[in-house]
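Re: beginner question about structure tokens

> Can someone show what the tokenized structure looks like for a real chain? I only ever see the sequence side.

Sure, here's an example I had lying around. Input first:
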Amino acid sequence: MSSAKYIFVTGGVTSSLGKGIISSSLGKLLQARGFSVTIQKFDPYINIDPGTLNPYEHGECFVTDDGAEADLDLGHYERFLNIRTSQANNITTGRIYNNVITKERKGEYLGKTVQVVPHITDEIKRNIYLLGESGQYDFIITEIGGSVGDIESLPFVEAVRQVRWDLGANNALVIHLTLIPYLKAAKELKTKPTQHSVKELLSYGIQPDILVCRTEHPLPAELRKKLALFCNVQLNSVIEAMDAETIYDVPLLMKKEKLDERVLAKLKVSTKQEPDLDQWKSFLGKLKNPVDEVTIGLVGKYVSLPDAYKSIAESFIHAGAQNDCKVHLKWISSEDISKDTVASILGDLDAVLVAPGFGERGLEGKIEAIRFVRENKVPFLGICLGMQCAVVEFARHVLGLADASSTELNPKSKHPVIDMMAEQKRITTKGGTMRLGSYTCKLKKGSKAAAIYGDTTIEERHRHRYEFNNEYLEQIEEAGLKAVGVNPESGLVEVVELKDHPWFLGVQYHPELKSTVLNPHPLFVKFVGAALASRKKSQL
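And the corresponding structure tokens:
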């Protein structure tokens, strides 16, 4: 068995309480004390990965270096802890059942009746222990998706009960995140939902060690005593988690509440050092005290749910702080943009980002937006489909190829400047079959992209099926849109930039997935810098 300590984070009363942020914040505090930490997420849905889920329902699909399509909480883990996650950090019920059924089909159970207990729970436990067995980590934090009482979560909760039993009290603990609602009419905080949630957890054989209570108002001492008494937890293990101004405040709030100290005491781990949070505090200082401000338009089709572009929004927060600048994001539906409306919607912006996505809806709006920023010299960044739209727009309006398009959007186009990748044409299944994960890209010396990265060889993460059609490469480059980043093995064009434009870049990959608090992504840092320069120029 591994020497790692296991921390489980469950949720009660309601979903969306912020288990991912609490897990990331605790991880940050333990890391700041000198411990090695990783976090994994167990999701109770049957989908094998989030890649086939609707962004409106689930937010963005995060992609790891090793090509796992993962829950957006993994983005929080990476941004807070400045670590890289992998396939092993996000497990779904679908993956668990798929593994068990595959084993059964191979005859590995030798005629036994395959059941939820022990076979499904054993497979969950195997995945829980997987990261710990590597010997790389002092702490494995495991977030259990959903709320206690959901039918879907039951096998995970049972597996947690067994793990605690297997490992003993000093090697595993459970943090229960719950809600203390405030009733305006009665002008008081209510503990009953939390009591019921803990009772539910107890009925499954799990006594939480620590309660983290989400609340809009401070928890009075009397209320903490009541929670401790009725939920069987020590008084100093009732932790207040008030609504914060920004998610990046939460580690400091949890430090103030001594969450990390309680965890270490419960697990009988001697404290290595006081948390070193100087860099984190410096970032927060810059975030909260900006010297300048810019307004950047994010043009996409899922803007009604900002979580669909979570990593992009967070990358702008990191880059803004680096530039001592407040970034105001203007969320713009590409369906609202047309030839008639584009100037009024984009006219007062300092820069425009055209977001990734799939499908035909809102495409013409994205192309109009790119035409406007290209002609009016507004700083532009296109990511994935945003880069592809920039190529289509250029082909149509500069090269005069009126029919130019992507075969994703118009399979019959006479000028498919964006086409499906050769290896994708033979694929019939949808899940996990795109070009996924980290790939090398070679940047041309002297290009704007190489100057931004400070290097000519970079690694970035991908998630796409379509690519720049190299048959049009010469024609497009001659007209001024330069392919300055290419995959050295496949020849896939990954970065384009426009000559004679202050700042116009399109990238096939997803730079937002690698931006963290301590290492903001250079593309976003320089893009915000370009927006700032554009704003100052317009004020002259």
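Each token stands for a local structural state, so reading them left to right follows the chain. The CA atoms of residues 356 and 385 lie 5 Å apart.
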